[in-house]
Structures are given as structure tokens and as C-alpha cells.
Design brief:
Blueprint (H helix, E strand, L loop, with lengths): L21 E6 L3 H10 L5 E7 L5 H8 L6 E3 L2 H7 L5 E4 L6 H10 L3 E5 L6 H14 L3 E4 L6 H11 L6 E9 L22 H17 L4 E9 L16 H7 L5 E8 L3 E8 L10 E5 L2 E5 L13 E7 L2 E7 L9 H15 L7 H20 L3 E2 L6
Parallel strand pairs: 1-2, 1-4, 2-3, 4-5, 5-6, 7-10
Antiparallel strand pairs: 7-11, 8-9, 8-15, 9-10, 11-12, 12-13, 13-14
The chain binds nicotinamide-adenine-dinucleotide.
Length: 387
């Protein structure tokens, strides 16, 4: 297939030109910021110059832990972006609630942005981010590292090759039996920080997997449902016993969501995602087409990875056949490294965002549509905002 049909063409063995160093800042120095700094530290063309976190002393402790010296630390994104005049890029690793305000402020200051997933929490915020992006002319890429997984790239190649014919129905999602994420406190489950739950944490990955494979058609309508039966239960066995009361009280997001979405081109998307459920899996991902269908095995802890070899079901000369696609190993560099590298390369080479907002807007519209449809109790029409 044509190389330009894929979003990523990271050349794993490409030599990094370190003659010009990119000055990078990290906003939010919690759990995922570890993964960012560990990749940046391996890149000879990166100088980590600044960091910010709302929690006093957290940014300082973070850089100390990673043994990165000389980093200027700030109490929030604004003070950092106001003071730092020559930043090339920031990683925004804050909880969902502050994604939009941090991204917009960075873009307004003329800084390129790598924004952790989910893009934000509402369609309106996504549109505001895109307006700031347009005005700034800077790059903003959304942090979906599973896109770099060779198996995800293969899935897209399979779909784009035409072997499945016309795609008309997709089922995706998955989840965990007992997996509400609270190992580092309540930032994922509190309404004040996470705002959205299982959808923002893992559902956005399932949506990205299939929507990216089929070329991100526009979502038209959604009928959505969300629930919080497990998260709000003080007897939920997935919480550490000493925190059960506290976490159940704090829980303000969804631990399960489902949506029935009509996409442009006559495609139905049937989606469900769970942080907790009385079931092993609500099903594999399937993409059904007029000439063939593909089944992508789910994983126990759905986090954007593929659970085993995908299988294509089709007909050859009147016989029903199945073709298994062998699992591909990760490249020389891990997917997270490649997510950051592809963003930095785009900055250096004047390229475009590896995971563009124009695509992830639709991902966000579906999540937001599920929340809004659940509130009103019926299907709603989705309107693409003017940017
Ligand atoms: N790509 C991945 O694999 C992956 C994995 C885990 C989490 N994430 C995403 O990363 C984000 C952060 O997750 P986490 O687990 O690191 O959360 P976390 O709660 O551990 O860390 C977030 C940090 O951001 C800080 N913060 C919030 N607003 C700020 C602001 N305006 N200025 C400066 N600091 C601010 C908080 O004080 C906190 O320390 C989430 O949106 C999550 O969805 C992505």
C-alpha cells in the first residue's frame, strides 16, 4: 500500500540530528510524566528546561528522581509558559480536566504541544483547542501511542487494502473485570480532575483503533449510556480495603459506557468500555465488511493493545476461509518513544501532527455524545463545530 496512507512512518533506525536542541517543558509531573521524561532523556536533541505541577514541590521531586538537573520548576502551566520565552515544545501530562486550558495557553504562547489522551473532556473544549491551534500555526499532537504499535498499523493496512470490501459494522471496546484505576490516588475517578472515566482512560483507545483504521469518518448520531455501579460501591473489591469508603464517595465519573454510533458512509459503530464488570470481556473488536471481516482479540486490561493474532474471515471460490495475521513485534524503539519522536520530528522537519486534532475531534465528539445522550435518555445528533 502507499506509504502516505499510514499516519506514522517512523524510521526506527534513523539517526537523530542533535545539532539543534529542542527546549522542552513538562506540564503535570504525575504518573504518565515518568514515561515522557524517560523517552526525552534518550533523545540527544532534547533539553528538558522547565516543568510545572500544581502540587508544591512535586515538579522538583520529579526531576530529582529522574536525575535531570537545572530544570526550572513552576507552580502551574501559566507561570511556566509566561516565564519561559524559548520553549519549542511541551508535554501536557495533566489530568483530563486541565488538558484544554493548558493546551490552549501553550499554543497561544507559540509552543508546540504533545497533549496526553484523551484530547480533553468535551466537544466544545476540543473545538477551542483547534481554534487556538489554527491561530498559532503550531503543532499539537494527541498522545495515542498504540497508533505506533506495528499490529495497529497492520490493522489499518488490512482495512485500507480493500480486502474487507465495504465496511458496514464495527464493534469495539472492552475492559477490565476489576480495574478502576486508583493506584496513585483519585485523579482518574474524581469529577474535579478526571471528569470522564473509563471512556477517557481506555475507551478513547478502542475508538481510535477502529476509527483510524477506517479513516476517521464523521460521527453523525449517538445513543449513549453510562453507569457507575462499581465505582460508587463502598464494597467494591477492586479498591484497597482501607480506601473503599473514601474512593466510593469520591467517584464521580463513569465506570462503564456504551454507545451506538452512526458514522458517515453508512457505518455502524457499536462501542462499550468497562473499568469494572461481572464479565471477562464484553467482546473482541470486529470490523465487518462485504468481502471479509476482521476479528481483533481483546485483552484483559484493555489499554490500547492487541490481545493476539487478528483473523480475517472471507470466502475464496465458495469456501469459507480464515486467515490469521501473525503478531508483529514492537520495533527497535517502543511505541511511547515513537509517539514522542514523531512529534519532535514533525516540529524539526516542518511536518504535520502525527495524531492530528482534526481526527481526534471525532473521537471526543463520540465520548461527549455518549455523556450527553445518557443525560437526555435518547439518541442525539452530533454537529461538527466550526473551527
Ligand atoms: N498515554 C498513556 O499511556 C497514558 C497512561 C496514563 C495516563 N495517561 C493520561 O495522562 C494524563 C495524566 O495521568 P496521570 O496518571 O499522570 O495523572 P496524575 O494525577 O498522576 O498526574 C497529573 C498531574 O498534573 C498536575 N496538574 C494538573 N493541572 C495542572 C496545571 N494546570 N499545571 C501544572 N500541573 C497540573 C497535577 O497536580 C498532577 O500532579 C491523563 O489525562 C491520562 O488519561 C496517558
Amino acid at each position: 500500500m502507499a506509504k502516505d496512507m499510514l499516519d506514522f512512518n517512523v524510521e526506527h533506525d534513523k539517526e537523530i540530528d542533535s545539532s539543534k536542541k529542542l527546549k522542552v517543558g513538562i506540564i503535570g509531573t504525575g504518573w504518565i510524566a515518568d514515561a515522557h521524561i524517560m523517552q526525552y532523556m534518550q533523545m540527544p536533541d532534547v533539553e528538558i528546561v522547565a516543568g510545572a505541577d500544581l502540587v508544591e514541590g512535586k515538579a522538583e521531586a520529579f526531576f530529582k528522581k529522574h536525575k535531570v538537573e537545572g530544570v526550572r520548576c513552576y507552580p502551574d502551566h501559566k507561570s511556566m509558559l509566561d516565564a519561559e520565552k524559548d520553549l519549542d515544545a511541551v508535554s501536557i501530562c495533566t489530568y483530563n480536566k486541565t488538558h484544554a486550558e493548558c493546551a490552549i495557553y501553550a499554543l497561544e504562547k507559540g509552543v508546540n504541544v504533545l497533549l496526553e489522551k484523551p484530547m480533553c473532556v468535551t466537544t466544545e473544549e476540543a473545538a477551542d483547542i483547534m481554534r487556538a491551534e489554527k491561530k498559532s500555526g503550531k503543532i499539537i499532537s494527541i498522545g495515542f501511542q498504540p497508533r505506533l504499535d506495528p499490529n495497529m498499523i497492520k490493522l489499518k493496512e488490512v482495512v485500507q487494502s480493500g480486502v474487507l470490501g465495504k465496511i458496514y459494522y464495527i464493534q469495539t471496546g472492552g475492559g477490565r473485570r476489576r480495574g478502576i484505576p486508583t493506584p496513585f490516588g483519585t485523579s482518574f475517578i474524581s469529577k474535579d480532575t478526571g471528569v470522564i472515566g473509563a471512556m477517557g482512560d481506555i475507551g478513547c483507545y478502542s475508538l481510535d483503533m477502529v476509527l483510524n483504521a477506517i479513516g476517521y469518518p464523521k460521527p453523525l448520531t449517538v445513543s449513549g449510556y453510562t453507569s457507575d455501579f462499581f465505582g460508587k460501591d463502598p464494597n467494591y473489591s477492586g479498591y484497597a480495603p482501607e480506601h473503599r469508603e473514601e474512593y466510593a464517595k469520591e467517584f464521580g465519573v463513569e465506570d462503564f459506557a456504551a454507545g451506538f454510533i452512526r458514522l458517515e458512509g453508512g457505518i455502524i459503530l457499536d462501542f462499550r468500555i468497562a473499568w469494572a464488570m461481572n464479565l471477562d470481556t464484553p467482546g473482541d473488536t470486529i470490523i465487518m465488511g462485504t468481502k471479509g471481516s476482521v476479528r481483533v482479540p481483546s485483552t484483559e486490561c484493555w489499554n490500547g493493545s492487541i490481545g493476539g493474532p487478528m483473523k480475517i474471515y472471507s470466502e475464496v471460490a465458495g469456501s469459507q476461509v480464515e486467515t490469521e495475521i501473525p503478531m508483529l513485534p514492537e520495533g527497535e524503539n517502543n511505541n511511547f518513544f515513537n509517539k514522542i519522536r514523531s512529534f519532535l520530528d514533525a516540529i524539526k522537519e516542518g511536518g504535520t501532527a502525527p495524531v492530528p486534532t482534526s481526527q481526534i475531534l471525532y473521537n471526543q465528539m463520540i465520548i461527549d455524545g455518549i455523556v450527553k445522550s445518557n443525560k437526555v435518555g435518547h439518541e442525539i445528533k452530533l454537529e461538527v463545530p466550526e473551527i
